[in-house]
Protein 1
Amino acid sequence: MSEASTSIPQCSPHANYLAHAGTIDAAIGRVLAQGRYILGPEVTSFENEFASYVGVGGAVGVANGTDALELALRALGIGPGDAVVTVSHTAVATIVAIRRTGAMPIFVDVTARDGLIDPVQVESLLIEADRHGLHTPAGRIRAIIPVHLYGRCADLDALSAMARARGLAIVEDCAQAHGAMHGAHRAGSFGAIGAFSFYPTKNLGAMGDGGAVVSDDVVLLERVRLLREYGWRERYVSDIEGGNSRLDEIQAAILREKLPHLDADNAKRGVIADIYRAMLVNPLISVAAANEGHVYHQFTIRCRARDELQAHLRAQAIGSLVHYPRPVHLQPAYSDARYAPLPLPETER
């Protein structure tokens, strides 16, 4: 459904721009006037400011969220022969990032409560893998990617305990969780390394693609910096095999202007979510309970008459979407049986 055909679009990056148009326009003008457009002072400043916001030692700006996840995995040395535990109920970008390293995803189910990775399922998988030295048909398990879906953090305490016991890395997929909290910690500050997307529809969105990798580990961050630009420490001299994944100056400048408003914008989302929660009282509709750390990237419900509800909303010029219409393991490109050794009934429901 196009934004033009709805009174209330499902999301509106343009509305977010209009809310901050004065400072964003000034930021773009500042970059154009200074004449430095790639990896200049705006990127450096945003990296420092975003790391401070997340509560980590550093951040590295990259071209998009998919690259952020891939470079985070590569920085950990994950590649062919390795396996990464994650969920099928996610944007396919999570799986694309794993496969681009040469590693294999292993899917576990999500909980009925919140649609997030189920620690019980992860524990079952790891106990079975322990018998074979963490080797599985998909490869040796090296990491777990919890996807903080819809604006809510996964159960990082339980997952971290399992990972520590086996020497595995937690790589947080924070593409939908800018500012979300897990206890006293922001999304991205809990695992070994975290990955963010700044796609325009995100809670902190650029006016194009963008992403960032965050960590307290200076060695991992330095490796990500090398990987994002050809492996260069010295210009034109590649110390390692890298690629090209750079956050540009204009997007960094825009993100710098939006970042100070993120908490207030998230709070507004919470107010709207409370209104929805109070009004969605039909017994055919299931609504997640309020969560203190949730930043409501999406307000997601379950409904026995979903198609009928969407038709009703459409008639009222209200936009809605299904996130996601088909889980990754049921998509033709990712139907390899090695990816899903356990049944995924909740994901499919």
Protein 2
Amino acid sequence: MIDAMTIDLKLHFVAFLDVLGFSEMVNSDVQNNKNDHLSKLFKCHQAASSIFSEAPDCSITQFSDSIVVAKPYDSEKFQWFVKCVAKYQRLLLDEGLLCRGGIAVNKHFSNGSFTFSAGLIDAYRVESTTARYPRVVISDEVLNLIYEDDRSIMYPNLIREDDGLFFIDYIGITSGERPKSLVETTKSIINQMKNNKIPSVREKGLWLASYVDSVLNTSLGTPKFSGKSVEKARLRREKK
């Protein structure tokens, strides 16, 4: 039993990841009496320990579709933390799974079965209010703390989008690992999402296609306005 006097809230990097489409996975396994998605997620959870093994003080907790990774704050370990989260995203991707999330920095305490964390609240807020697509967004507080609010510098392993948010370039970071498999898997995921009837799922698929195309120089996305559709519109105008 932990003595309450030894409990201490300390500054941590905290990543909150949300596995996309989790409800559908659970329903599918239950209705079909299979463990397909359960096996994939558990496989990723077990493999994650090797990714973060370099830092014994780094904890990984998963409950349902929520994954929490926490590491005591050390500015020099931020890039290590970013790369590890990227590798975890790639683990999920290799199994045909996507996640979105947020990374924050704040006080945090966890002993495995009990968690009390301002960092988790902040990371969840980033994920739920800004991530939107299958990306892990870095909070402004983290960037300001690590880089002392110098936005003129280039942030290694991060991509800035047109919405001003920075997210982990997990495709770029892991592109050297099984590159052929990476393209094939992302292509399969994107095609499924683009053909989905749910607008929010299709939107995420189109975003992923654009991201992958920009990093891997592929052509998985579809131009928003094709030349043929624009030409047809022009001809219709001319006929009036």
Protein 3
Amino acid sequence: MISILTYPRIHVTLLDMSSNGYRRNGGLGFFVNSPSLLIMITKSKVSQVNDHRHRKHGFDTQILLDWLNDLIKKLNIQEKFTISISGKTLSHFGFGCSTSIRMASIEGISLLLGLKLSHQEMIHLSRRGGTSGIGVHGYFKGGLIFDIGHAASENSTHLPSRSKEFKQNYPLLFNKIDLPNWEVGLLIPKNLEPISHDNEKIFFEKNCPISSEAVYQTTYHAVFGVCAAIKSKNKEHFHKAIMNIQKQEWKKKEWELYPSLPVLKNKLYEFGTKAVGISSLGPSLYFFADDIESIITKFQKPNLKKQCDILKVSFQNTGRKVICQKEI
């Protein structure tokens, strides 16, 4: 049995969603240490997927099982496997669950069979990273991940990652930056359902391409704001850059998917938060403050507590952990 502990990624923003740039997509994001997932891979008589999380989506199980059976064919192996998923990271809430589950499954199978697959081979076999490479690269590395997407000719249509998983290319990692020892807050809505796969596609089709000027603005705040602030450990500039990214054309459209989220965002600011962002297409929020514990305490009021879970986490500078390897 192989057990692999994976960490959630926070997707700060996609970058080039225009139609006339050098490349497509690209993105900026970082990893935090909680809530984590434990993926266990074992040999079995038939392939199966067991999702033990309290909140899950049944269609994901079948998609993952279909992918697993196809993976076995691609690897030209005879063995079957059971993938068991436990932990508190929710799928489709902006944490990159689908990517981490697939990457852990491939790595677990590789370790069980002694295949010695390279990181690039695992990324390719996962079929993830069609839009953003933060999840596939950060799975191994953690930290702040800056990727520069795909060549425009290779990836001309703007679609969510789940709609591009059969692409043969994957995004280029431009840089991985170690994160400082700063606390992070997460706010996970209880009463909001994430948008469906079909609605994700509609969202991209409706809102792409965006203007070149918007791409330049977002990239400026990502590079000279977020990346520079992390390298120089400048919290003030980091907070300002995160806030400015939320005002850009693409990110504003993501916020508009959930009309009730600005109410929670405003409460965070009212209670002393310095910067709030929405991770990927949401609905989870991440935030930064001088005293996150005091903000969590204020959210224990009954009317707020029933709306969301809120927790303090930390930046994660290392990738997944293989925590158990034994014969059964």
Protein 4
Amino acid sequence: MDQIDMTPEDIIKILKDKDFENALKFVQIGSLLNCKPAIRYATAHKTWKCVYSKRKPKRVLFTIECNENKWSIKANLFHINQYKEFVESCSNNIKHGIKSAYDCKMCSSRCKGGAQFTMDDQQFMKCIGCCFYFRNMPDEDWNCVRSLIEMESNY
């Protein structure tokens, strides 16, 4: 099957049981949020990627990345301060994923700057290009990540 003919469901079929179920919920949230999916295979990492983009305003909202052994969500959470109360209620696992993301270093002339936010009374500026990666989490945390993506889609 050619990449162009593949659907998001096709790329996550390589995942096993619970991982497939959780990834499918992200495929569904992408559809619910009226995102446009774009599928590609990253040969260097041997990973399938499905990028979900909002049409208005045009921007990437999140990406599903997977291969036979692992999967992750790369979330573009640029407006964290707008829903920081919810972030504060998330698990330490989620907060750690957000705090440990790459710091913004204005990497190129096209860089729009990082995601600036306050968490636990500390200021952060995280690289929006590298985004926030989430992987190997319990169901409750995956539910939280989906909620974060839904909230982000409103801005």
